[in-house]
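DM from R.C. (forwarded with permission)

"hey, sorry to bug you on a friday — could you get me a structure for this? deadline for the figure draft is monday and I only need the backbone to look sensible"
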Amino acid sequence: MNSSSNGGAAGPARPPSVPDDSVLVLRVMPLPADVNGNGDVFGGWIMAQVDMAGAVLPSRIARGRIATVAVNEFVFKQPVSIGDLLSFYARVERVGRTSVTVHVEVYAERNPADLQVVKVTEANLTYVAIDRDGKPRAIPPG
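My reply, with the result:
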């Protein structure tokens, strides 16, 4: 298999619509237990994955414990199905004194025999750095 093709040893190609400053933070494939009665993956399952993916960059920036404080926007663009391989790309939108806002885009790789990559979800989330007592703390400089 040619490593430069999608699915090769080097991994999938980056979808062209992903901004250059976005980072691949999570890849996951939903399981049969994650679907609703219509056979689509539960929106709540996708939201939980987006929250985990969204926390990666803020936790690095905060250099410690963080908590989700807001889901500012969440848009489901297409249903997600069993067999879709989801890639979560995140980019930092804003760093405040105690908080970090990120934008997460989710792409599904479908039908390996005739590969299609489609954006299925995007969201903006805000996380706050917290101390051991759960109180907001300043984000370290740098």
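R.C.: lifesaver. Strands lie at 23-28, 66-76, 85-95, 99-110, 116-129.
me: no worries. Confidence is low (pLDDT under 50) at residues 1-9.
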